[in-house]
Each structure stands twice: as C-alpha cells, then as structure tokens.
UniProtKB/TrEMBL annotation:
Site features described as Important for activity, chain residue numbers: 99
Record comment regarding domains: Possesses an unusual extended V-shaped dimeric structure with each monomer consisting of three distinct domains arranged along a curved 'spinal' alpha-helix. The N-terminal catalytic domain specifically recognizes the glutamate moiety of the substrate. The second domain is the NADPH-binding domain, and the third C-terminal domain is responsible for dimerization.
Entry keyword annotation includes Chaperone: no
Active site: 50 (nucleophile)
Name of protein: Glutamyl-tRNA reductase
Binding site for substrate: 49-52, 109, 114-116, 120
Subunit structure: Homodimer.
Similarity section: Belongs to the glutamyl-tRNA reductase family.
Pathway given in the UniProt record: Porphyrin-containing compound metabolism; protoporphyrin-IX biosynthesis; 5-aminolevulinate from L-glutamyl-tRNA(Glu): step 1/2
Claim: Transit peptide is one of the keywords in the record: no
Boundaries of every Tetrapyrrole biosynthesis glutamyl-tRNA reductase dimerisation domain copy: 430-529
Start and end residues of each Quinate/shikimate 5-dehydrogenase/glutamyl-tRNA reductase domain: 183-282
Gene it is expressed from: hemA
Domain Glutamyl-tRNA reductase N-terminal, first and last residues per copy: 6-156
Length: 548
C-alpha cells in the first residue's frame, strides 16, 4: 500500500472555487466513509481548512486511486469533476509525505509560518480515528507531521516569517498603522465561537480592544468564549449575544470579524449599509495622483464631443475620470473625430490613447482604469467607520460590502492577493531542511516497518521448526531427562537465532533504503513463507491502535 494525496488549495485554485468546494462537517464524514469503502483505499483522512481541501489515503493502485479520490472530492464538494480537475494536485509516496510535513510547518499556508494548521491537523486525525478510517499509515503520518511542525516552530524562527491569518488580516485593515495601535480602544464584534473566531477574539483582546462582543448560533459557546476573555489577563470587556442581535451590535462596532460554518451569507450588503447609515466618517489626507492637464484647444476642437468646460480641473483621457457619465458610443465618436484630422496630433498628445480606449470600451462595454500618476497631491479621503474581516470559507460577508461607503472589507480573497508577494524569512530555508530530513527518516521507518511482518513470520516459522524437531527427538529418545532436553532445546534455538540474525538485520537495513520494498518479497520467496501468515502479523500490528 502507498500514500496518496489529492487536493486543492489557495496555491492551485482561485478563492471563488475554493469557496464553492468547501466541505461542511457532514460532507467530510461522508467523504471519509466513502473513501475507505472504495476499492483502491484502505484508510483515509481529510484536511479541510479555509484555504485547502485535501484527501489522504493509503491505496494499492496509483492511477485507480487518483481517479477514485478525484471523483469523490468532486462528488462531495458539489463542484463538477471537469471543473475541479484543472485545479487538483496529486502527491504520491515520499512526495505526499513531503507535502504533508510542509503543510504542518506552515510552509504551504497563505501566511507562511502560521501555527494554527497544527490544531487543524490534530482535529483531522481525531475525526479519522473516530470514524475508524485511520489505520497505521494515517496515524503515523499525522502524528509525525505534528511533531515535525512543533520542531520547526521550536528550532527556527519560522514564526517571524508570518503570523496567524487573523493577525495578517488585521494588518491589511490597519494598513501602515501597527495592529496594536490600530485596534486599541475599538469596539469589536466577533461572529462565531470556533477555533478561528476564538483566535481572533484573543488577538483583539491582547491588542487592546475596548470591547469584544461574541455572537454565535449556539449561545452557550458564545458565553463560554466571552467568559474566557473576561478571565484573561487583559482589560477587555467581553459579552455574549445571540445571532439575532448581530445587526444592532454591528451598528455600534468599529470592527467586526466573522468566521462561522454557515453555508450562506451571515452579513448581506444591505445589513452592512444599514449598520453604517448615519455615521460620519473621519477624514484623512492621503496622496493621490495628479490628473493630466488637458492640452490647449487647437483649431477645430469646438466640434469635440467631450465637454471641455466640465473638466476645468483637468483629467487623464486614459482614466475613468475622463469619461465619467460618458457612454461608449460618445467615446467612439470622439475617437473618430480625432482620427479624421480635426485635431493636430502634435497638440492632442492623447489621440492614440483615446482611440485605443474607445476600441476597448466598444469590446468590453466599460472604460478601464488606466490612470498614470504624475506625483502626489494632497486630497481629503474619508476613513472607514466600519472595518470587516471575513475569515470564513465559504464567505460570511457579502462582497458587496466593498461598494458600501464608509466600509473597508478584507476577506480570504484579498488576503490571498496580499500574501502572494509577502517576504520570506531566512528561517524558511532551515525549515525546508528539517522537512527534508524528516521525510527521509519517515520513509526509512515506514519501509523498515513494511518488512517487519515478514521478519516476524520468518522467526515464527523457525520457532515452529525447532519445536517440531524437539518433539521428534523426544519420540526417538523417550528416556531423555529434563535437564538434557532443556540443554538440547536451548542449543538448537541458539543455532537458529545465529543463522537468522545477520540476514534479518541486514534485510531491515536494506529495506529502509529507497527502493527497498522488494526485499520483503525476496525474503518471502526464499523461505517459502505463507502470505496469509505475513498478513496476519500485519493485521495484529494494526489492531494495537495508534502509536503514541
């Protein structure tokens, strides 16, 4: 049997597809049950987070395993196989182990180095154990991955390479301001009481939020989280409210963080618009591009369809400001007017841009934004009165919030874009070396474990031969006393042990090397070992349960 992983993540698929393919708790359970019931797989585990869905399985056939696992992922995610397939990745044997260990260390996370993935791995293993879909391989793999992840965090500074998704999201909302300074004194609302929401609440409390209101569909869980926050070593005031109170709490909040398991929207665009209605945003002076000044009118420009008098402040004809309220047909008319020679192109330096813009508008039906800044100028821009952080997958907050005045929204999609160019810490290389070493060690241990049942079966067969020969000797020498019988038995056993010691030790060493799986088959063939006896030893080993 061999390890196979089939999955998709923020690195392989657009967030919109991940959102549609997300698996609820019931879907994960059914996926695990169907996977182990399928012919190629004997055990399985699912790792489903806000930015990845991965199905791990122990399979006996690679191609059949890939086909079956891909089909099951499509079936339970609700996304068609044809649409899902281009975004799936497949890892097999040592590459699958390498991928798992990289995930555990946070190297494959949206925010490199984040440690929350360790808790998610632990939950995935617990679910597989509860459903009895995790055998020896899944238990060994996940438990070792947890150890590797902890080692990476304890031996390196990988934590400096990134932080939790919560902190990263708050940094995006705070922009250039330090998170602690930006959060301090804010009234905050946390929607949900799961692991991510609890992490968000704890982060806000440590950052100095003045108040944290926790809302959850199960009110007891919201109360429990609020009590934990109040009992902590911060000065935050926390309280729990039912979900029905969210609209009212949102209207008085400065910041809301949402991460629930809901399949539909928790906050609609209308909810958010009502929450900020009547609030007056503060203003700040920010740099903005200076518009391009329109060239001085030349002969014949009176016929220009553009209303030059309406743009006394100047504009760039290559940007939306130039064509505000203008339809594509009018722009095309202007382009034709330029091309007909009504304007001296040496004066109208933007003529070619106007023509190209008109052609684009006619093709896509809108005017693209292509402003070219020419130095900063101070303008007054409103600061948001409500900031929203959506960490759920599928999303909790309507993307229409981006268009509501006075609101700033950061969601999984914008976090993915922001993290794409995030700098990597030097510690990442050290973690990669740890992963590589651990993969080699894990592979050697698995290959050695693979031959162990064969070695055990061989020694069992040898013990049976010794017992049979001693019994035959007693039949031929009935007067043999106990002392001599014991001495003879011990001597025969020592001879057999010495004969088997070197080959069994050596075969374990060879089997631990890459490509060493064939030594078990050779041993079975050379000593004519019964395959069922070897399989019985393997089953007995697996039935002992997960190793600590």
């Amino acid at each position: 049997m061999s390890l196979l992983v089939v999955g998709l993540s923020h690195r392989s698929a657009p967030v919109s597809l991940l959102e549609r393919a997300s698996l609820g708790q019931d879907a994960q359970v059914k996926l695990l049950q169907d996977t182990v019931a399928a012919e190629p797989a004997t055990e399985a585990a699912v790792l489903a987070t806000c930015n990845r869905i991965e199905l791990y399985a122990d399979v006996d056939k690679f191609h059949a395993g890939v086909a079956e696992l891909s089909t099951l992922l499509a079936q339970h995610s609700g996304v068609g196989l044809d649409e899902l397939t281009p975004y799936l990745y497949v890892h097999y044997e040592d590459r699958a182990v390498h991928h798992m260990f990289s995930v555990a260390c946070g190297l494959d996370s949206m925010v490199v180095g984040e440690g929350q993935i360790l808790g998610q791995l632990k939950d995935s293993l617990a679910k597989a154990q509860e459903l009895h879909s995790a055998g020896r391989l899944m238990n060994d793999l996940f438990q070792q991955a947890l150890r590797v992840g902890k080692r990476a965090h304890s031996e390196t500074g990988i934590d400096r390479a990134g932080q939790s998704l919560v902190t990263f999201g708050l940094e995006q909302l705070a922009r250039e301001t330090p998170v602690d300074e930006w959060v301090r004194g804010k009234k905050t609302l946390v929607i949900g009481a799961g692991s991510m929401s609890s992490l968000a609440a704890a982060t806000l409390a440590r950052a100095g939020a003045a108040e944290i209101v926790v809302a959850n569909r199960t009110f007891d869980r919201a109360e429990r989280l609020a009590q934990i926050l109040n009992d902590g070593d911060t000065d935050v005031t926390a309280r729990a409210v039912p979900m029905e109170s969210v609209p009212g709490e949102l209207a008085r909040a400065d910041l809301a963080v949402s991460c629930t398991g809901a399949t539909g929207l928790v906050l609609t665009g209308a909810d958010i618009a009502r929450a900020v209605e009547g609030r007056t945003p503060e203003t700040t002076v920010l740099p903005q591009a200076r518009p391009v000044k329109l060239p001085q009118p030349a002969a014949g420009e009176d016929a220009c369809p553009l209303d030059l008098g309406a743009v006394q402040q100047g504009f760039s004809v290559a940007g939306e400001a130039a064509v505000a309220g203008m339809d594509a047909a009018t722009l095309e008319q202007h382009a034709a007017w330029v091309d007909n020679g009504s304007v001296d192109r040496r004066v109208s330096k933007e003529a070619e841009l106007i023509s190209a813009l008109a052609q684009t508008a006619a093709t896509v039906g809108r005017i693209p934004e292509r402003r070219r800044p020419e130095g900063p100028s101070d303008v007054v821009r409103a600061e948001p009165v409500l900031c929203l952080l959506d960490l759920a997958m599928p999303r909790d907050i309507d993307a229409a919030a981006h268009r509501v005045g006075g609101v700033r929204l950061v969601d999984i999609e914008s976090l993915a874009e922001a993290s794409a160019d995030a700098p990597m810490a030097s510690d990442v290389d050290q973690v990669r070396r740890i992963v590589s070493d651990e993969v080699n060690a894990f592979g050697a241990a698995q290959r050695a474990a693979h031959i162990t049942p064969t070695v055990v079966a061989l020694r069992t067969m040898a013990a049976d031969v010794v017992a049979g020969e001693i019994a035959r000797l007693e039949g031929r020498l009935p007067g043999l006393d106990d002392k001599h019988r014991a001495e003879i038995t011990q001597t025969v056993r020592r001879v057999v042990d010495k004969l088997l010691h070197a080959p069994t030790v050596r075969v374990k060493q060879l089997a631990a090397e890459p490509g060493g799986a064939g030594y078990a088959d050779a041993l079975r063939t050379l000593f004519d070992l019964d395959q069922e006896t070897v399989a019985a030893v393997s089953r007995a080993t697996d039935e002992k349960g997960p190793r600590a």
